[in-house]
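User: Structure tokens for this complex, please. No commentary.
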Amino acid sequence: MKFKYIEEFFVRILMGAALALVFAFVVGIVFTVFHRGWSCISWEMVSSLPGGGFYIGKEGGFLNAIVGSVYIVGASTVLGLVVSIPVVFYLNVFLRSSSKLAYVARLAYDVLFGIPSIVYGAFAFTLMIWLGLRTSLLGGILVTTLLIIPVLIRSMDEIARNFPRDLLDASYSLGATRLETMGVVLRQIMPGIATATLLSVGRAIGDAAGVMFTAGFSDSIPTSLSQPAATLPLSIFFQLSAPQAEVQNRAYAAALVLTGIVLVISLVGRFIMHRFSKNKI
Amino acid sequence: MSSIRIAREKTAGGVMFLLTAASLLLVVAMGIGLYFKSAPILEEHSLWELLSASEWKPFRNQFGFFPFIMGTVWVTGSALVFALPVSLLTALFLTEYSRSWVKRWVYPALDILAALPSVIYGVWGTLLIVPWISERFAPRFVEYSSGYTVLASSVVLSVMILPLLVSLFVEIFSTVPQELRDASQALGATRWQTSRKVIIRRSLPGIFAAVVLAVSRALGETIAVLMVCGNLPQAPHSLFDACYPIPALIANNYGEMLSLPLYEAALMFAAAILFVVVLLFNLLSRIILYRIKKA
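Assistant:
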């Protein structure tokens, strides 16, 4: 047999191995987290606040972290959408595709997307000290908003770029201004907005390094924007660094909750993509 | 009537322009902010001294970043070595070999890997990888290892950058015109020969850009690495040494940094190093990727 066929055979085996490895990682991670978390989780953990002596293994749960994460993620997603929908609209409708500004802005958002959340956190922290603010829910919301805006813009832009130009022309020919064409555009890129939102929720809920600096941590549910707030990833991280097995077990339970949320988001996102776009896999 | 509509259009256009331009301003503001915050330490120590000294004793005014830089380099480098072959093979398989029903399973799997939060990777690392290294793998090579090592960090990191690499590679490979594949196969080349001599060769700039992008992603990864790296301020000499990458340094010490003005400046300097490196890497690779997409 010729060498090239032998080579082909081996490469196919290697590719099979690479693919098997990818699946092994996915199944391995999800199984590890679920297996370890399932034996620890109880209703009390997800429904109650940390009691006295929580961090040495006494009573309580991590409801504070769940609620804190929901506050931060919800508020920052809404803020992020308010900022990024106009930007995407501007890039694709107001600017020509050959525009220098559009090029530079896209580049800037791609770069911002690449900047690690710990740098966002450090930057926001210095800003907050400069403004005389303490770690608070507001700080966490703002830094998370900054963190997800690039995700939102880039993934919506990806869809909006394939927007049929004829629809714009049809709208203009009826006498609509560019701004009034927004309704047409929004309706067309709706699935794009939905998937972008889910993507950014996924990134926002999993971020730990950014909120570590800005939102701080607290054992109670914040009642105003100026109080510090706990988040799920940080709660997992802090509890896992404790030496007591009881505290660590709660970290595994919290990891199970977080992974569950993220998995659901990811599957729903795929479903929406699949349902509403015909030319994508 | 129409003048109101035009005025509204103009104002909206202005507001949207400001929002768009704010992205640029944010990049610039970050650079300036971090520079000013790290200026005090640059006044007291020279840049070269900070980067090359290896003593880290903030309370004795010794700030050597060398161990942390080496930790970052080791972890990122070995993560890339692990992730590159797997992601190249997977991407080639997806674009050149696979049938569509296989893709329907692989893409969601990669999606899940991309969506899992950093801290979950950390939990997985401490539960599975660290014990495996300290009990099974390391004893074959060294006498004792806690498991919290460069190896553990880079295994975790390599899985984290895998989905990014695969999706970039798939995107790049699918810009190679079908005619080139047909021409190669018409000359009797096997699929692998086509992949190696046509697809990969033509995609080399793109592969380079994707690798740079993945490296910059790995550089800034914080929590997952922090949980498995061992956090010892020493320059690692092998895969079985503990290490202390820059993001872990920032995250671990931000609580006590306000106790000393120079300490704060030192950590902000660390963030500035990360910012500059990531910024340059991202600019370089994005510009290459834009060119490829346009062509």
